[in-house]
């Protein structure tokens, strides 16, 4: 089997979104989505939907799509699509942007699963068929009490864990954007206290400030509160280009520090952080190395006896978890969620979503071949922007 084409179809769709700059709902907002297609001479194709900032839910930009259909297409024509490891390495050493290389890897895993009639995680080597999940909020969903009320709603829906993205570049008192300095640690601490009081001692709570605390002192201050409230982890609290600050933070706090989240370099960067003692848990997702890169990172973490928690929702991240033991990758991040956002609304270009939650707060892995997509091609054709 040989690769004969690499195509990107860009199309319009709609979904609820949250305007984090103004702290408000954007119902049924227009979204630009892409489907990347890798075709072969045997009539079999692999697909990946998305690659943008919301992972599966937003598409590649024009530059990224052009790279796929230009330079990368020329590299892949005539290659065996099952040589995923070779192609992953090629794209790494060619300094291809991580998200673009990841889309190639994911489409190739989808193709492999379709070829064998098995879900991608089974082709990788299945570890489990169901995973724990947590409700993950948008940032800036409102004042501290709004988070507490939202956490109660999620608990009533069956979620057993809840993660707070607090107030980023936004003043919760005035509801207006800010430059991010000073940090909102007073409101953030109040949010964490109110959420814990609302949901009680048994719900697992996580906290992710997305690198917006810029001093070690304020980070430690919030971390001490999280420890007293029995939060499970403290995620990406400071900018990730200051690794020594993370080394010092891990020494100061007993709550596990989960990082790096967005630092470039995939498995290689995360291995360095582990060796430096800059995090207690590692963070990875399929936008930073594809399924191949996620699996490599999980193996490194397993060898060192630390968690490799998977970042963001989506089809690829679910398959990465399905091929990894719960001892290493415990929780699936379902979201982003906010009051009024219907995350579970079906996408019109798919006949089923990837992550409906079971009544016990678990998610069952997709069972279709490859990544598990059942694509509504008529919808895509009717809403095409570019091919």
What does this structure look like?
This protein has 387 residues and is α/β, with parallel strands linked by helices. Helices cover 37% and strands 22% of the residues. The protein has helices at residues 62-76, 84-93, 98-116, 120-125, 144-157, 185-199, 216-228, 243-252, 266-276, 290-304, 315-322, 377-382, and strands spanning 3-19, 24-40, 45-49, 130-137, 161-164, 170-171, 176-177, 204-208, 233-235, 257-258, 282-284, 308-310, 331-337, 362-364, 384-386. The strands form four sheets. Strands 4, 5, 8, 9, 10, 13 and 14 form a seven-stranded mixed β-sheet that branches.
In sequence order, what are the helices and strands, one letter per element?
A: EEEHHHHEHEEEHEHEHEHEHEHEEHE
Stretches with pLDDT under 50, minimum 5 residues = none
Strand content: 15-25%
Number of strands: 15
Approximate shape: globular
- Helix share, percent: 25-40%
Q: Could you report the average pLDDT, rounded to the nearest whole number? A: 96
Tally of individual helices = 12
Main sheet: strands, sense, barrel: 7 strands, mixed
Structural class: alpha/beta
Separation, N- and C-terminal Cα atoms: 24 Å
- Rg, alpha carbons: 20 Å
């Amino acid at each position: 089997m040989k690769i004969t084409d690499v195509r990107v179809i860009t199309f319009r769709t709609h979904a609820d979104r949250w305007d984090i700059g103004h702290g408000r709902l954007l119902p049924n907002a227009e979204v630009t989505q892409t489907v990347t297609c890798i075709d072969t001479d045997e009539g079999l194709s692999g697909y990946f939907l998305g690659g943008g900032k919301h992972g599966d839910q937003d598409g590649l930009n024009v530059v990224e799509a052009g790279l796929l259909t230009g330079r990368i297409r020329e590299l892949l024509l005539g290659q065996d699509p099952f040589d995923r490891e070779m192609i992953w390495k090629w794209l790494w050493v060619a300094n291809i942007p991580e998200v673009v290389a990841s889309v190639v890897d994911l489409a190739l895993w989808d193709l492999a699963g379709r070829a064998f009639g098995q879900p991608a995680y089974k082709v990788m080597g299945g570890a489990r068929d169901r995973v724990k999940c947590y409700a993950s909020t948008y940032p800036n969903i409102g004042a501290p009490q709004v988070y507490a009320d939202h956490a109660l709603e999620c608990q009533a829906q069956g979620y057993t864990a809840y993660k707070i993205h607090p107030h980023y570049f936004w003043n919760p008192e005035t509801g207006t954007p800010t430059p991010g300095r000073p940090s909102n640690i007073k409101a953030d601490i109040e949010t964490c206290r109110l959420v814990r009081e609302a949901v009680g001692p048994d719900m697992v709570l996580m906290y992710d400030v997305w690198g917006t605390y810029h001093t070690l002192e304020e980070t430690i201050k919030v971390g001490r509160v999280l420890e007293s409230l029995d939060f499970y982890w403290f995620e990406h609290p400071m900018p990730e280009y200051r690794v020594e600050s993370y080394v010092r933070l891990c020494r100061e706090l007993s709550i596990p520090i989960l990082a790096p989240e967005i630092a470039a370099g995939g498995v290689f960067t995360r291995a360095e952080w582990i060796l430096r003692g800059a995090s207690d848990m590692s963070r990875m997702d399929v936008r930073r190395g594809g399924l191949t890169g996620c699996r490599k990172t999980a193996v490194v973490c397993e060898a060192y006896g630390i968690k490799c928690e998977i970042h963001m929702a989506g089809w690829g991240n679910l398959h990465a978890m399905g091929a990894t033991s719960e001892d290493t990758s415990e929780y699936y991040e379902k979201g982003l969620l906010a009051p009024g956002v219907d995350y579970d609304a079906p996408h019109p270009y798919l006949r089923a979503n990837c992550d409906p939650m079971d009544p016990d707060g678990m998610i069952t892995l997709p069972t279709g071949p490859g990544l598990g997509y059942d694509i509504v091609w008529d919808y895509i054709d009717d809403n095409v922007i570019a091919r």
